[in-house]
Specification:
The protein is α/β, with parallel strands linked by helices and about 350 residues long. The chain is built from 16 helices and twelve strands. β1, α1 and β2 (about 25-30) form a beta-alpha-beta unit.
């Protein structure tokens, strides 16, 4: 049995903690005070699996400070499952923890987190990873798996990566390993772009977005811009567990919209269940931060460095910032595709 640390008891953190506990490992959950109180009262509940996982409060260990986390160590692995915009304070905490927590498995959305972790811990102590399984958060420690057709991706960048993969397989999860951690992260970025910023701006489900001809063209443009940036970085696209990224991009690039739109509307909408995309969750909860900067914004930044235009991703990034910061009203775009498309067409004409 291994002892592991899971940082963040949200949807993905609950999923990871539940699987590892089912596989027989000792899990320590690091949470903020409010979430820790809920965990200590209600325990962990992971539903949507063939056999749900329910752990009583006394069956789990919860900590709220680096000192407490250190006292429960050392750990055979640490799993980082917070939102990308919470990474800076986590990096400070990891510095305090010192040795005994690595390898750290980076399960954050977007790109940039692996490099930030490597600067603090050393490249040899970080495993890039991703979770493609859609998991919906009910509250701290309570989550619902929306689909069993996806899984977990891990880069083979640490001697313990193979063992960690077997931990999840023992719990019934689908796991795939990869030689190139950057290719894994950028390929997941493609999947995270789909109906994400657009859903937040329009307050529409991804399935409805992909059923709309004009919005599909916008979505196609953001994905192909990202694919060009990935190619400019010299990285291959890789398929993820349950997500054929290469086929998706090829279909968008070469197939007529009327052919591919119904397929994508069904696959993207059906694959998420009731879970809203991450940027929609943050914007419509009134939060001051979203993951747009590590998704669309990352495409813009890297495109600029490569001399590649990314006007669609630039527009989506700007609009999400405007909505969060109150420069635009949510009602200006809510279920109004024509308003977004008019801005997009103007941006493309200007470019």
């Amino acid at each position: 049995m291994s002892r592991v640390l899971v940082i963040g008891p949200g949807a993905i953190g609950t999923y990871i903690a539940g699987l590892l506990t089912r596989a027989g490992h000792s899990v320590v959950l690091w949470a903020r005070e409010g979430s820790a109180a809920i965990l200590r009262e209600h325990g962990i509940h992971l539903e949507g699996l063939p056999e749900p996982i329910h752990l009583a409060p006394e069956a789990i260990q919860v900590v709220t400070t680096p000192q407490a986390a250190r006292e429960h160590g050392p750990y055979q692995a640490t799993f980082l499952t917070v939102k990308a915009y919470h990474l800076p304070p986590v990096l400070e905490a990891l510095r305090e923890l010192g040795p005994g927590i690595t390898p750290v498995v980076d399960l954050l959305n977007g790109v940039g987190s692996t490099e930030a972790l490597q600067q603090v811990l050393g490249a040899e102590h970080v495993i890039p990873g991703t979770v493609t399984t859609p998991v919906r958060r009910v509250r701290a420690g309570h989550a619902v798996v929306e689909s069993l057709r996806r899984g977990i991706g891990l880069a083979r960048t640490h001697p313990r990566a193979a063992a960690i993969a077997t931990w999840f397989r023992a719990a019934g999860a689908r796991v795939q390993t990869y030689a190139d951690g950057r290719a894994l992260k950028w390929s997941k970025l493609i999947a995270n772009l789909l109906g994400n910023a657009t859903s937040a701006i329009l307050d529409m489900r991804p399935q409805a977005i992909y059923a709309h001809p004009g919005l599909y063209r916008l979505e196609r443009a953001q994905v192909l811009e990202a694919a060009r940036v990935i190619r400019g970085l010299g990285l291959p696209l890789v398929d993820l567990p349950g997500v054929p990224v290469r086929l998706l991009v090829a279909g968008m690039r070469w197939l007529p919209g009327p052919v591919v739109r119904p397929i994508l509307a069904r696959k993207i909408g059906g694959g998420r269940g009731e879970k809203w995309p991450s940027i929609h969750q943050d914007v419509h909860a009134g939060r001051l931060h979203t993951e747009v900067d590590v998704l669309n914004g990352a495409v813009v930044r890297h495109g600029r460095a490569l001399g590649l235009p990314t006007p669609t991703n630039q527009l989506l990034t700007e609009l999400v910032h405007d909505l969060v910061q109150g420069r635009r009203s949510l009602d200006a775009f809510r279920r109004r595709p024509e308003a977004l498309l008019a801005l997009w067409e103007a941006r493309r004409d200007k470019g």
